[in-house]
Amino acid sequence: MNPVISSNEESIRIFQVIDKSSSLVEVSVLFAVGSRYDPQGRAGMAHLLEHMSFQGTIKRKDNKIITLEIENLGASIDAFTGYEYTGYSLRTPTNNIYKAVDVLTDVIINSTLNQSNLQKEKRVICEEISMYDDIPSEKAKDIFQNSLFEGNALGNNIAGTVSELDSITRGKILSFKKEAYTKENTLVSIAGNYKADLVNYILEKLKTLNKLSKLKYQKVKTVSTKGKCRLINFSKEAQQSNIIIGQTFNGGQINNKIDEYVLDLGNMILSGGMGSILYQKIREQLRLAYYVNSSTHLYDEVGCYCIELGVSNSNAQNALEEVIQIISEFIGEASKASNFERAKNYYIGHVITEIETAAELALWQSMKSLRNEKAPIYSKEEIINKINEISPENVTTLWSSMIRPDELIVVNVGSKDIRM
Question: Which ranges in the chain are annotated with CATH 3.30.830.10?
């Protein structure tokens, strides 16, 4: 299963992983445009467009017709929106691939964005926003993201806000679609057992997309909080405090400024698995939290890391202090052979299970290539070799440039305030 990426006269990039032993084909049409491209004052535009695409086309009048046709083919269809991407994916038995692709591309190209459906879907998304707003851990994530990127679209909720959704008209969403869903922004990922002519079939279906896009986003100007930590206590009646701690760092995915595998290995040392530093100290040794984990995120020009934990209100202050201590000592701990080797082995096992199939490998690599055309393409074996080549010094050098204990952002959602 060696992945191959190519371009064509249509200027659409094609990512392929052929597996003749498979009985399935998975096709994803990815666009390098997400919620950070939402027009000012209309947060939620990209997400709303993705939802509306399934509400009916000229040929297939409503969602029920689309759904029944797909499921009668034994297939499944899905879509997703991120800050910098939107994706439409399809998984189907090999013998039904052409019929299923016809549905997928019809949804993308020919959705009518009917006005009555638009109003109904807005209400559905408003309910989604309200649901997540009621969940303390999700509320903490929203406040943290907004605090990291205050004044920038990266700080907005991907789904938008109730008031700004209300201002989105059919005309505005049609104009946005013409600029967002263009050949320049498109990468098609195909994986599984299929014939070579499937590529041309998909390209023919997407030929009416505009070639170029004029959409731009506002870049993040700074990643510093000017030598000060920032604490946000958000009062919400609950038995548990949900705390997020982290910060931004310079360098993003464009031009390969950050080695994602080194970044990920550092995160594995910090919270990957039950043997990780955070889990062992916070969960096992001190018994302060039911859950504790960390994650990293790379955007075009900037990155961030965050540590999330849920603790009882009475333990919130102690837990915060312990996590800050772990952050302060992380570079020394990451260089220890026992921590490094455990995390590397765990990471390799994680990769093996995450990209076992052609479809998983294709999505893994195509998402890395979507916004960074210079991103190298690796087979699964090459990825494992690359991880094996990482040294403790690689991890500590990168993470030393990211961690600034005197500039942390802390968000606490709960009924008891904490302090720094």
Answer: 4-205, 230-414
